[in-house]
Every structure is written in C-alpha cells, then in structure tokens.
Design brief:
heterotrimer; A alpha+beta; B alpha+beta; C alpha/beta; B: alpha+beta; Ubiquitin-like (UB roll); Alpha-Beta Plaits; Rossmann fold; 3 domains; 6-stranded mixed β-sheet; 24 strands; about 25% helix; about 20% strand; C: alpha/beta; de novo design (two linked rop proteins); 4-stranded parallel β-sheet; 13 strands; about 40% helix
Chain lengths: ~190, ~575, ~475
C-alpha cells in the first residue's frame, strides 16, 4: 500500500490549546498589515515577505494552519510548498496550537548549567503537562486545560542571567525552578 | 639561472594558451588547456579524471550541497611584491596546495592552477562523505529499483567502508509515497541533493517539490493536496542519483543490468528528442532522454517517453491480410504485394491517391514518392497533426518528420493535397487509395462512408483500426523502435532512428514493403537490398543530403537545413548559460 | 556632557572601558531619540555626511575594526569588496540574529540604545552606497523588533533617516525583518536566503560572496550589531584615534559576555587585548563560586574550542614577540592570541565551568544544540552533527565504549573544513577540543567493553531475537 504524505509533518493539528486561539480568518486589518510588510521589499522580490506574513498570522492566531499557508502562498504568488518549506524549517513558527501561555525554556549550555531542565520539570509538574509525547516534528506539549504549553528553545541570548524563558512575548530571566510557581501565578 | 622566463626565446605555456583564449590547468600532474572560468569538475572531465558527485548537474544551478566532489586545489606561488613570478624549467610556476579541500563543481579555474583528484586528503573527504550519506540510508538495494544505476552503489564500491560504524537509530521517514501519477518517493533513500527540486523550479517551471523540516530530518515532499503531475515529472527520476524517485511505469519491471540500450529519437513531435530505448529480448521496458544540447538538452516529456506500450499491444497486426469477399484472410507477403500491384494496375493515374504519414522516415517518404511516381499520380499527401507547443520541448507540429518530407518531396507543404484527396474520394473521382501509417478516420478526418466509395484500399498499420478494417489489403508494418531510418526535426536537424527490437513475426519493415510494392509495379526499378541504398538515392537527388550517408549522421544528428524554428526550452537554457547560472 | 552614573548593582567594573555600552544600565537613560540627541547623538552622522563615502570607508579601514560577529574579519576591507563598476542597488544588512550560545550583547544595545545602532547604520549605508537596509532581528527578541521599529520612525521624523537625510541628497530606508529561530541565520548568506523568503541554506563561496552577489544577487554588506555601533564611534573620534584603543591588529573595545560558574556573570566592555583571562574571571567576574575552582572555559561562544584552566600555552604575547609559556590566567583577550591558544575569540561569549561540571554532559548539551540547528543542506554537517549527538547521548547514559569515543572524534574531523559554511567547524570544534583536552575524563564515563551496552532499540530487538529465537527447523 502506498503511503500518503505524512500529513502531520506538513499540516496543523488540533490541541487542547486550540480554544484559546481564534480560527484563521483574513480581514481587512490583516490584509493591510500584510500589504505594508510586502512593501518593505522590492516588488519583484515579494517572496521576502514570507516570514513577516507568517509572523502576522502566528501573532493573531497562535499558530500557522494549512489555510494560513495557502493564504500566504497566494498572497506572494508562491506554491504552498515553498511556504511550508519555511514554516517547517523554523522552530519559531508553530503548526500546532500552543496553550494560552506558551512558555519557551532555554536549554542551551549556560541555562542548562543554571538549572533550566529543573525549571522545565517544575513548570510541567505545576501545569500538569506531559512532555513524553513531544517529538522533532511537534516539540510543543500543551496542558490538558489548554492554558499552558511548553517547549525547549535553543539559546535565548541571555546566558548571564540563566536560566531564562519566554512566556508568549515576555522575557523572564534569573528563574531557578523555585520561582516557577511565582511565574505561572503572574499569568493566571 | 634566470629567475623569470627560461633563457630561450620560446613563449611560456601561459602565453601559448592565452593566444587561444585558454588557461593551463594541472590535473593530477598533467597539464591541460581549457577556457578560463571553466568549472573544475568540467576540467577534470576533460582530463579524464573522474570526480564523483551527486548534486551537480550541468543543466541545473549548483548548490554544492553533497560535498562528494571535494578536491585539492593549488594556486601558483605568488611572488613577493615587486618581483616577477618564477617559472620552472617546464615553463610553469610552482603550485602551492591549499590545506582545505574545495568543491570541484562550483569553483572555476585560472592560469597555472592545480587540481588533485587523488591523494590522502581527497580520499579521506570522499570516504567521509560516503559514510555520512549511508548512515541513515536504508541499504535496501535488493528491493530498490535504482540498483545497478545508483550513484550511491557506484561510489561506495570505491569510496565506502566494508562495514558500518554507525550503531545508532536511523532516522525514520516516509516510504513508498505517491507524490504524483507517475513518480513514487522513498524519503529514506533520499540524499537531499535537491536535483529534483531544482529541476522543477528551474526547468519545469512548476515548483511543487520542496524540503520540509531541517537538519537530519529534512524530508523531500509535495504539499498536501498538490501533486507532482507535470508532464516533465519523470525527468526527476532520471536525475535522482539514488532510488528516492522512481518511475511508476518502470518500477519492478526489470533489473536495469538486463536491459540493452539503443540510442534513438522520439517520434511524437517535431522536436525529435534524443532517446535511449531500453529493451530485453523483444520487449521495450522504458525510454529515457539522451543528452543533445541542440535538441532536447537532457530532458523529455513524460507523455512522449511513455508512448511505447502500444508496440506490445494485443491489437498489434502480425500478418498481411487480403480481403476475400467481406472477410480478411491471412496472406503471405508475396501474395499480398502481388495482389496490391495487380489491383492498382487496374486504375489510371488520376484515379489513384497516396496518403503517407509525417511519422515516416526520410527513406520511407522517398519510396512513397517513388510509388506515386510509378503510379503516375500527383495526389500525394501527408496527414497534418497539429497541437499546441508547451513552450518547452513539445512542438506544435506533432509529426516528427515534416521537415524531411518538405525536402524529399521538394514540397513547401506536404499536407496540401489531403483535402483534395478527401474530396476526390467523396465524389468518387479517386477510386484507389494507398494509405501508409495513418488511420484515415483519425487525424485525416475521413468518414467511414467515404471509404466505402473506394474500389480499392490498401493500408499499412501497426495496430488494427477502422482504416485497416475497411482495407482490401492490410500490410502490417514496424513501430518506431523496430526500424531504422532518418528524420529531420523542426529545426532542420537530420537524426537517426535506430532499431532496438524486431517487428512481430509476420510484420515487415515499412521501407521494405514500399520497396517491394514499387518493384512489383515497375520491374525496371533498381533492386534495393539495403536501407543505405535508399539513403544514397536521396543523397544523389536532394541537395541538403548531398555527400551524406546514414552512418555519417552521428548519434547527435547534423543540421542540414535552416528552418527558422527554435526549441523554446533550449532558448531559456541558453539565457541561463549566458548568465552563468548553469554550465549547460 | 553630564556625568554618567549607573543603576545600582549594575555599575561597570573599573577595568572596563565603555564605548558601545556607555548608555547601558545608565541612570536616567532611555531609548528615545530625544535622550539620544540631547547627549550629542547623530552628530557623527552629520560629520560623516560632510565627508565623501570613500573617506568614511577609509576611516573604518584606518580604525582596524574587526567584525564582532565571530569571524573577526576587518570591516573596512569587507566594505571594499563591493565591485567598483557596480550598477546594481547596494544593500546593508544588520545582523541582529545573535544566537551563538554564550553571547548576549545585541539584546542590550537594541533594547536600551537603538539610536546608536541606527546612527552607525546610516553612516555605514552612506559609506557603501546603500539606499535600503534591513535589520534582521531574531524571533526570540520580540520586544527588540518593536523598539527598533519605533526608533526608525523617530529617526525618520527627525530627518536622520528616510529622504534627504540631514538636508543632504542622501536618502536611505530601514526595515526590520524578523527571523524565526534559526542559528544558521547568523551565517551571512543563510541570513540573506532567509531574507529572500527561502530556507536559510548558506550559499557556496565562491561564487556567492555577499559583497558582490548578496541579497537579490546585488552587492550586500552584512555586519553585526556591535560592529555597526563601532562605526559611529570611529567617525566620532577618527579612525586613527580609534586604533589607539586596544592593541595593534586588535583595536577598539569589545563586549565580553560571561556566563556559567562565576560569581558575577554579565557583559563587560574592555579594550581588546588589554585585559587577561585571569583579570576577567577573577577581578571583574569575582572568581569562582564558593568552594569551587575553575575547570574549563569556552572563550568565544559555544563553537570555540574549550580551554583547560590548568594548562599552559606557548604563544607570542604580546603579538610579534618571541613565543613563551603563559598560564591560562595570563592569556590576553584578543583575536590573535586566542587563536594561537587553539581556540578563538569568536563572538565574545565566555562560558565558564567549574570543577562540579561533568564534561560529557557539557559536550552532549553542545552537541544537542548543533544537531538541532544544523540546516541540513550539506551532507557532513547534516549527518555528522546528529551522529555526534547520538554518541554523546549514550556517553552521558554510560552506554558508550572507548571505541565510540574514537568514532566521535573521527566524525568531528570528517565534518571539519568540508561543509558549505562555517557551521561545520562550529559543530565539530567543540567535540575536537573537548576530546583533546578531556579525553581521560570522557573515557572514565565509558563502559570498558561491549557487554550490556544498549545502542538503540532496533539493535536491542535484534539481539533479543537472536538470543531467544528457536533454532531453525532442520538444524541439528
């Protein structure tokens, strides 16, 4: 039996975090923002706007769905695979809904020496997250309630204040495992 | 000892080369002269030194990603400031070798450069890359269709280890994926050389292939819902150096080492793509494009290469038939030819018409015209077959030999008389019709009732069809892979069709059918024993063929006439060569 | 000029010389244009606009400035590579994709002093003839992107950017382009591909040297944030005066980022070559943690080869003098000596490990980073980086043999020098360095022989099968 394309590598999936994000829908605001970004690049090179457009999508809808990939492709006159090539390359672009608060813990050397693995374990314990099912293709683990999700990130470039993490767009430093509970409380 | 030029007045090698617009490059100790700016890998080819490679392809951009072509590079010693360079006794400057290897596929050569394709460093690099390519490879050669023509297999014989040092889990990827109607993908075999992606981006203009994920997980795929169904998709299987992309049509049909290769040409349109016909016994298994930079580059449309299965169809005509009453009866060849000649001699010249095909060879067309001359009719025409050009390799003229017909028949439009012949058949003015290689109810647009008006219809076919059914005599012929001959493509290039297999027993080569028919009608005609004799007659008669023989036409053909036509894909390729994007 | 005072607890060390980081952690300082201009901001731009572009480049050449991104290539020379006959547009790209582990300086510049960067960039654009510049900011700095975009707007409004800058004929536009979390985008041609909307696969050089064939195949200059900031100061003080800072061939100041096992990790701006490793670690950073001793240091970001603190090094110090033995603490912090010691100054990220650290664990952490970040374009790095990680995974778990260590070392050398970009070296040097310096310690973590070693589930299953399978029918 021939296999179909392993779609979970290319397309998005529902998670318990889905409910915290609006479904993908293009309105005039998004069009306007997208067009403004496209204008940053020479007209014959509008492909350059792939990343900016994907950032717009992710910031509005939490993750990048298949529909969003098609929209970006159409907008930039590309085949959708050329957008998927980019989406799947960057860990900063997600194809699965994260939780309402997405926590990225730095796991690279200085943070690891400073206790970032312990921090991750503590956050998972407090948020009830099971990381055992994460994989290269889907590194994000979401709590059953959908409020929290975690992911290890590579060097967040604040090695002097290790361990550090990002919660959505907020940066937190000097965060040993003991402070995990305090961190989560500040977002409740 | 002079520290600049040798004492003699002789010119230095660099000056001798420069006079010819060339530079001297040393490859493994031997000096060769090549144009400046030639890629190192091409220089090695000229010097007959093999440089193994996977990602490099002369018709595609060079990303330099496989790293298999690493060689050692050396530059002439740079003289200290203010001093002139020192030349050795042999007239060359000493070369200092760089400690770091470079890729031969993208680096270009300059005067007095050195290349080493052997030695410890190069060997180490190749062995290393080979090992890396194999650690995550499934090593499933026993069930892989690429076996026998796989670059991984080939280079691992020379550069591989006897056993693996890799003891970890291999990366798992999708296998046996149908990415298009004609192509199947095994991602675990893929070595990420990106040739197929570049082909679809740069040549086919249909960028549906891409890599997803990154690092060791990088996976070749099409987007969900999209397919690789371009008419050039099978070229990706040709250029895939491993068994990642294979042809659904050829898959599991035959091990390639059992196949015989015959160089020939495609007869599906006026371009006349150069091909290799792969056969075993009397069966064609596949057809692949053969590089000809004046015709088809390295490519070929899927629709053309797959159009050979009919040669082995059940409807294939095996023996001549003669209609007795309303029933076709099997005849022998002398009987069928005699019957045809006898019937034809009942008619006056103006009552006979001859319809041939633009798919016939020059030799057949020549004999067809002799036949018309013998019968004293000037009602001779081909059946036009026109489509749309695909802007690449498929020309609007779907007949492969219109240019040949124009020359051989000395006619500006060999299709001109088809309509008046059709009218003549309808009105009954034409009573006898000779048809070669065409189904009149097909592209010629005759109606079944029209044929009923005829007193005598003789036709030559490969497969049974309605014209054959209506014929009084049916003369089964040979398919394109079963005969020899020459054709002239739309650009005016004379090319050779070669015989890869035999026609079915009972069928006959078309030129021989025509020869026998002409001889039967006119015993004064010369006896022709070889196809070469027919070609000789053409050469005597047609200016463009003067001094040529069949064997003088090389595998790549020769231009014999200016038609003013061009092949669009070659034009875009030329632009890319000029821009330095590809070697060509 | 008002006296500069700093936020309590964040005062610079007395051995520092603050140029780029002058305004970082300053009391009463903010990122606004108003503040920046009130302290003489954009004066260097005005000065440069009164010069010829070639003169600006010459000042940078005279300054001896070497790129602060990691490779240490002379900036003025890089600018000079733009073909003189060029007719295409020229682009400048600011590389703010700071991602070499152990490095954390760009964040503070763009957060607290964005106009310093913008001023340096406008001057650089003027020098190289760029009408458009992109600031490539890593995705993990979302706030930085907003701050820079706001600063760009301010600068445009004030006439320091946009059309007819400072009333001259020179016009230039800046745009922010955000990355999405890929270390490889720090490589300049990878960054360019990313900016073009493609997968950030580094290009082969030759032929794709950015100064000739960069963004959209046009001449492109890619410089690091810190490098571009230095340009502002070079114009301010003059190239020759700038060259007096630091040591010959290693001029100016540079920011060192210290992390790991020291009392006071953080960023320190020093004159290049004027401080030794011992001064940095003991005096500036307060020495090792209580009860600990320094064991090893990675001096220039995680791809630099590790140095052992108990070793002596045979180098010419100062450069040009005869070679002599120096201790680890005596190593001067400059580009050339660090290379002579067998490592590199790289991006200035100093990662310190004390005697509590297990080197197999450290190496595995680094290997995991590179295996994750390998773009996968070329064979040695794609396959080798993950292979090395898989071996150290086992090493950490006690499931590796001494032979595996040999394999690990040879895999590293099989990558080194054979890849498209410098990532090959970045991922193989840590392994080479670690095995070179700590072979005995790593060997102590291996199992002596093959017995009971579990390499992978497939092999395990096969072993079980062979052990448990009944004898084939017909065998005696």
């Amino acid at each position: 039996m021939p296999q179909t394309i392993l779609t979970d590598q290319v397309t998005s999936h529902e998670t318990s975090g889905t409910k915290h994000h609006p479904p993908f829908e293009v309105d005039s605001t998004i069009e306007r923002e997208a067009n403004a970004r496209i204008r940053q690049y020479p007209a014959e090179h509008k492909r350059s706007a792939v990343l900016p457009l994907l950032h717009i999508v992710q910031s509005k809808f939490g993750y990048i769905s298949s529909d969003a990939i098609e929209w970006v492709a159409t907008k930039l006159d590309l085949e959708p695979i050329k957008v998927a090539e980019v989406v799947t390359f960057y860990p900063g672009l997600r194809q699965h809904a994260p939780g309402k608060y997405h926590i990225r813990v730095c796991r690279t050397l200085s943070c690891a020496m400073g206790g970032s693995y312990e921090l991750m374990d503590k956050i998972c314990e407090l948020a009830g997250i099971d990381r055992s099912q994460t994989s290269h293709h889907n590194p994000v683990a979401v709590s059953p309630c959908g409020t929290w999700s975690v992911e290890f990130a590579e060097c967040l470039a604040s090695c002097g204040t290790a361990p550090v993490c990002l919660v959505n767009n907020d940066f937190h430093e000097d965060l040993p495992a003991e402070k995990a509970s305090e961190l989560l409380k500040s977002y409740k | 000892m002079a520290d600049s030029a040798p004492a003699t007045a002789e010119k230095l090698p660099k000056d001798l080369a420069a006079e010819k617009g060339l530079v001297n490059v040393q490859v493994d100790g031997t000096w060769v002269q090549v144009p400046a700016g030639t890629r190192m890998i091409e220089v090695c080819k000229i010097a007959e030194k093999e440089v193994p490679h996977y990602c490099y392809h002369t018709k595609l951009s060079s990303p330099g990603n496989c790293r298999m072509c690493l060689v050692q590079m050396g530059m002439p010693n740079r003289p200290p400031p203010g001093e002139s360079p020192h030349y050795e006794d042999d007239g060359y400057q000493q070369i200092s070798w760089m400690p770091r290897p470079v890729i031969a596929c993208a680096n270009t050569v300059t005067e007095n450069m050195g290349i080493r394709t052997t030695g410890e460093l190069v060997e180490e690099c190749r062995n290393g890359v080979m090992e890396f390519l194999l650690i995550n490879h499934p090593l499933d050669c026993p069930i892989c269709d690429q076996a026998g023509e796989c670059s991984l297999q080939e280079f691992s014989v020379e550069h591989g280890r006897g056993s693996s040092r890799f003891e970890e889990m291999k990366v798992k990827k999708p296998k046996n994926v149908e990415i298009g109607p004609r192509i199947r993908l095994d991602d675990e075999r893929c070595i990420m050389c990106s040739r197929c992606i570049r082909f679809m981006d740069e040549v086919a203009d249909d960028p549906v292939l891409g890599f997803i994920d990154r690092g060791t997980h990088t996976t070749l795929t099409v987007h969900p819902g999209r397919r690789l169904d371009n008419n050039y998709s099978l070229n990706t299987a040709d250029i895939c150096p491993v068994g990642a992309l294979t042809s659904n049509d050829f898959r599991f049909q035959m091990r390639v080492w059992f196949l015989k290769e015959t160089k020939s040409i495609d007869v599906n349109c006026g371009t006349g793509c150069n091909t290799v016909i792969w056969t075993r016994g009397n069966e064609v298994f596949r057809i692949t494009p053969r590089e000809n930079n004046e015709v088809n580059s390295s490519w070929m449309p899927d629709s053309h290469r797959l159009n050979f299965h009919y040669l082995h169809a059940e409807t294939r005509l095996g023996d001549p038939f003669v209609k007795i009453g309303s029933k076709h009866e099997i005849s022998d060849w002398p009987g069928a030819i005699a019957k045809t000649a006898e019937e034809l001699s009942r008619f006056k010249g103006e009552e006979i018409a001859v319809i041939g095909s633009g798919r016939m060879t020059n030799e057949e067309l020549y004999l067809l015209r002799r036949l018309a001359d013998t019968l004293e009719t000037d009602l001779l025409s081909l059946v036009p077959r026109v489509g749309e050009s695909d802007g690449k390799l498929i020309s609007a003229d779907r007949n492969p030999n219109t240019s040949g017909a124009k020359l051989i028949w000395a006619s500006r439009n060999p299709y001109a008389k088809l309509e008046s012949i059709r009218q003549g058949v309808v009105t009954g003015k034409i009573k006898a019709l000779i048809v070669f290689y065409e189904d009149l109810l097909g592209d010629a647009q005759f109606k079944a009732d029209d044929l009923a008006n005829l007193d005598f219809l003789v036709s030559n076919h490969i497969l049974t069809n309605k014209t054959a059914k209506a014929s009084d005599v049916v003369l089964p012929g040979a398919g394109f892979a079963e005969k020899r001959g020459s054709l002239v493509n739309i650009t005016g290039r004379l090319q050779r069709l070669n015989q890869a297999i035999s026609p079915p027993p009972g069928a006959m080569d078309d030129w021989e059918i025509l020869r026998d028919l002409v001889k039967a009608l006119s015993p004064d005609e010369p006896s022709r024993y070889l196809l070469e004799e027919v070609f000789g007659e053409i050469a005597d008669e047609v200016e463009e063929f003067e001094d040529l023989t069949l064997s003088k036409i090389s595998d790549l053909g020769i231009p014999i006439v200016e038609t003013g036509e061009s092949i669009p894909l070659l034009e875009s390729e030329k632009a890319r060569i000029t821009a330095g994007e590809i070697v060509g | 000029m008002p006296k500069v005072t700093y936020i309590e607890g964040k005062e610079p060390h007395e051995l520092e010389r603050r140029l780029i980081f002058r305004n970082i952690d300053r009391k009463g300082w903010n990122a606004s244009l108003k503040k920046y201009v009130s302290e003489g901001g954009y004066k260097s731009l005005e000065k440069s606009l009164r010069m010829e572009p070639g003169e600006v480049t010459q000042e940078v050449k005279d300054s001896g400035l070497r790129g602060r991104g990691g490779a240490g290539f002379p900036t003025g020379v890089k600018w000079g590579f733009i073909p003189p006959e060029n007719k295409k547009p020229v682009y400048l790209i600011c590389n703010c994709d700071e991602s070499e582990p152990g490095t954390f300086k760009d964040r503070y510049i763009v957060h607290q002093d964005p106009h310093q960067l913008i001023e340096g960039m406008v001057i650089s654009c003027f020098a190289v003839g760029a009408k458009v510049a992109y600031i490539y900011i890593r995705e993990e700095f979302p706030e930085a992107a907003e701050i820079v975009e706001k600063a760009i707007k301010e600068a445009k409004k004030a006439g320091f950017l946009g059309k007819n800058i400072c009333g001259t004929n020179f016009s230039c536009e800046f745009y922010v382009h955000r990355g999405a979390g890929a270390y490889i985008c720090g490589e300049e041609t990878g960054l360019i591909e990313s900016l073009e909307g493609k997968r950030p696969y580094p290009r082969i050089k030759p032929p794709y040297f950015p100064a000739a064939m960069g963004l959209y195949m046009c001449p492109t200059i890619v410089n690091n944030v810190e490098t571009l900031c230095h340009v502002k100061h070079i114009i301010e003080m003059g190239g020759k005066a700038y060259a007096d800072i630091g040591t010959p061939r290693n001029t100016g100041t540079r920011i060192l980022c210290v992390s790991g096992d020291v009392k006071k990790p953080g960023y320190y701006e020093i004159e290049v070559g004027k401080m030794t490793m011992g001064e940095l670690l003991h005096d500036v950073c307060g020495g090792p943690l209580e009860g600990r001793t320094f064991k090893a240091v990675i001096p220039g970001g995680s791809s630099a080869k590790i140095l052992r603190c108990s070793d002596t090094y045979n180098v010419s110090s100062p450069p040009g003098s005869d070679k002599r033995e120096i201790t680890f603490d005596e190593i001067p912090l400059d580009f050339d000596t660090m290379a002579a010691c067998g490592s590199m100054a790289g991006s200035g990220g100093v990662i310190v490990m004390d005697d509590s650290r297990r080197m197999s664990w450290v190496l595995n952490n680094i290997n995991e980073f590179y295996a994750h970040e390998s773009c996968g374009q070329c064979t040695p790095c794609r396959e080798g980086s993950t292979w090395m990680k898989k071996i150290t995974d086992r090493l950490v778990g006690g499931q590796a043999t001494p032979t595996d260590l040999d394999t690990l070392e040879s895999v590293a050398y099989q990558i080194d020098g054979r890849t498209i970009c410098a990532f090959g070296e970045a991922c193989s040097w840590p392994v080479e360095g670690m095995i070179d310096k700590f072979r005995d310690e790593l060997l102590a973590d291996t199992a002596k022989d093959d017995v009971g070693i579990s390499r992978n589930p497939e092999q395990e299953a096969q072993r079980r099968y062979l052990k448990e399978a009944p004898a084939p029918v017909g065998s005696s």
